[in-house]
Amino acid sequence: MAFIAGRTYLAIPGPSVTPDRVLAAMHRAAPNIYEGEIVDLTHAVIRDLKRVAVTTQNVAIYIANGHGAWEAANANMFSRGDRALVVATGRFGHGWADAARRMGIEVDLIDFGKSAPADPTGIADALMADTAHAIRAVLVTHVDTASTARSDISAIRAAIDAAGHPALLAVDAVASLACDELRMDEWGIDVLVGASQKGLMLPPGLGFLWFSDKALEASKGADLATPYWDWKPRATGAEFYQFFGGTAPTHHLYGLRESLSMLLDEEGLDQVWRRHETLAGVVWAAFEAWGAGGSIGLNMTDPAARGRSVTAARIDGGGAVRLRQWLETEAGVTLGIGLGMAQAGEPAYGDFLRVAHMGHVNAHMTLGVLATMQAGMDALGIPYGSGALDAAAAVIGVRSSPASRAKP
Predict the structure, then answer these.
(1) For helices 269-290 and 388-399, what crossing angle results, to 10°?
(2) pLDDT at residue 117 tops 60
(3) Cα–Cα distances in Å, from 118 out to 261, 287, 340?
(4) First CA to last CA across the chain, in angstroms?
(5) What distance in Å separates the CA atoms of residue 332 and residue 330, rounded to the nearest whole number?
(6) Residue 91's Cα: distance from chain center in Å?
(7) Spatial separation of the C-alpha atoms in residues 341 and 351, rounded to whole Å
(8) CA 42 – CA 61 distance, rounded (Å)
């Protein structure tokens, strides 16, 4: 008997849930794109995009996804033949490296595997070995959407400075922006890459680059910046169309205006970060209890190294793929695939899944996913430890208690 009637839930790490308010803001006739409301709205959006990245510097908006934003970052930082130091903590670090190679950039890759964050010491060692300072930028993923490894960006900035290297620090924050704590200026980030479909709660379609004045100055010598990808007119355009390299993404902008208001002015960015921290803890508590009685475990063993927007886990013996299939066909819940954790044909290929808790997500949505997962494990005969749902619920209870609320 299936239980899929009703509203389905896409608990994957992007596209995330789009709030009804955002959908309603987008559901309107196209505006005049030459003057008036859309121009004023765009200037307000640019101001608030800086707030969400905690920066006072520059931002550019692209009609693209995260992969397009990677390409835009590469185009503005590098000339063909330049060198980049790329740090991989999962599939997306390798993806950014491949994008750079295909653009003619020489890549030095440091691979920290699929179950560990970046080690700042290893990055410093690589930079100190570059005595000619040929490396123009260090490319790091804050939270790898596949492995869900979270790296300490401020520590990496300190390592670059300690090495005495002038390289820019570029950070992929597609999976972490408006979910994990992220402070561009305070952490010394020169280029920050983001996209619309995760913590910003929009459909896919917009890519973002925030960049420092140092990166802006460095970009003046980059020969990969073609007219569309060049961030200079997008950040300082004299005419409105220059902000977008052409026609504005009008309906996405109306949705973005609504989502930024929800995040910054209504909930508040600190509270957004705390909510994601708590909901991540809810998921971790359930998996830790399940893992006591079966071959179930979290990919990242150190809580400090786990992303707060998505959790990667394993259920051995193909249990993850069987559970994902049951949830989608029988219960109306879709979980993320184990992206890049094992290759097709390998014995472990069906052992990985991801549970997203990013963006417009609350307690009952997250607890509901976990309860439905446990129902699926019962239906499929997958062994698991007891007490998971009690442990998950207790995280919500403890962190919303009066005593917890009183803490700064």
Answers:
(1) 160
(2) yes
(3) 33, 24, 18
(4) 48
(5) 6
(6) 13
(7) 9
(8) 10
Domains and CATH numbers, the chain: 9-16+268-406 (3.90.1150.10), 31-266 (3.40.640.10)
Give the pLDDT of residue 345.
84
Report which residue type is found at 285. Answer: A
Q: What is the pLDDT of residue 145?
A: 97
pTM over 0.90: yes
Pair type for strands 206-211 and 58-63: antiparallel
pLDDT in tens, 233-248: 999 888 999 999 999 9
What is the amino acid identity at position 324? R
- Please name which of 121, 174, 181 lies closest in space to residue 308, comparing C-alpha atoms: 181
Please tell me the distance from the alpha carbon of residue 74 to that of residue 92, in angstroms, as a whole number: 15
Q: Rounded CA gap, 11 and 17, in Å?
A: 8
Please tell me the predicted confidence (pLDDT) of residue 404. Answer: 59
Determine how many CB atoms are found less than 10 A away from the CB of residue 225: 20
DSSP 149: B
Length of the chain: 408
Give per-residue pLDDT as tens, 318-365: 999 999 999 999 999 999 999 999 988 888 999 999 999 999 999 999
CB atoms inside a 10 Å sphere around CB 38: 17
> Do residues 317 and 295 lie in contact, with contact meaning Cβ atoms separated by under 8 Å?
yes
Buried b (16+ CB within 10 A) or exposed e, 123-153: bbebbeeeeeeebbbbbbbbbbbbbbbbbbb
pLDDT one-digit tens code per residue, 294-312? 799 999 999 999 999 999 9
Interval 206-234: pLDDT, tens: 999 999 999 999 999 899 999 999 999 99
Look-up of token digits 């062994």: 383
Report the SS3 class of residue 389: helix
47-52 long-range Cβ contacts below 8 angstroms, 24+ apart: 48/260, 48/261, 48/264, 49/208, 49/210, 49/260, 50/210, 51/260, 51/264, 51/269, 52/177, 52/178, 52/200, 52/260, 52/263, 52/264, 52/269
